[in-house]
Amino acid sequence: MSASGYEEIRCQKIVVRHFGGIEVLEVAEARLSAPPPGHARLKVLAIGVGFTDLMARAGDYILQRTVPFTPGYELVGEVVDYRGDGSGPDPEWVTPGTRVAVTLPKMGAYSGYVVLPSWLLVPVPHGLDSHVAATIPLDYLTAVSVLARHARVAAGDTVLIQGAGGGVGQALSQLGRLQGLRMYGTASAAGSQERLAGNDVRFIDYRRQDFEEVIREREPGGIQAVFDHIGGANLGKGYRLLAAGGVLVSYAFAGRPGHTVADTVRGAAWLKLKGLLPGKRTALCMVPRELKSDHAWYRQSLRRLLDMADDGDIRAKVGAVFALSEAAAVHGALERGEIVGKVVLTTG
Prior knowledge:
Layout: E1 9-16, E2 25-32, E3 39-49, H1 51-58, E4 74-83, E5 99-103, E6 113-117, E7 122-123, H2 130-133, H3 137-151, E8 158-161, H4 167-179, E9 182-187, H5 192-197, E10 201-205, H6 211-218, E11 223-228, H7 233-240, E12 242-250, H8 260-275, E13 281-284, H9 287-293, H10 295-311, E14 320-323, H11 327-335, E15 343-346
Helix pairs in contact: 3-4, 3-10
């Protein structure tokens, strides 16, 4: 027991000390001493795995340019203890035993325990499975930010979702259906057409069809919004599809292998320059940065999403569950396309 009355916690975490392949995902020991004022210690129950984790490990993610680091932006955990900051009563959501969901402003979720400020913790509804809850924070918050903060679309607007079969794409599709949007979505994986149809999304097979030609034929007057996570030539093609007053929102840049950072910088610069022109808008969505600047929006939005999942209004799904110690194998399987759906890591 430490002098402050908080017992040291030891756990395993995943550390990347050098950018590279899956072999750089190292299992290491972490020690958590007393939390700082206003912080809680959490036992991590479930961790959402995103493709940003793979990009960061390889050195291709612009928001993670230094090593060492622990991957992962989203988790569900159980409050172990909390240290007040003396400003008033402890918040209700830091009671020991409370399950909370978290989106991190910087990576660090691949760990058995974490120490986090109380404002990041959002209670998980009692009936919502921890694994399912762990699939929601980053993808669905990104979708909310794209739709409400950046695109500002309204019922009846027509939009194009690039990569509608991916995690954010599915979140955009589900929330867009609830909002009454007319949606087109590019995808190619087996079963994509049926899955997208379930959210009223018109399917475009990007491997066999040119999405620009398809939409020009079907929507000659243009569309109100394009949501892009690919970058490159797709940005220009999407921008040309916009009607007057339309908006192109980018929330990621896939980039070329080994050149993703440079392609991200080029894409962001292109968006900024196009945004200076009259008639159409461009926007860049980066949720890890946005949540730091607007705590109230983050907490309200994530709490509403968790409630929607608990009520069945959104259908968050787990593709596969693995132990935290298997993180390297999971990254490899995702890179080879062997796993479909959102992967969750557990700590035991």
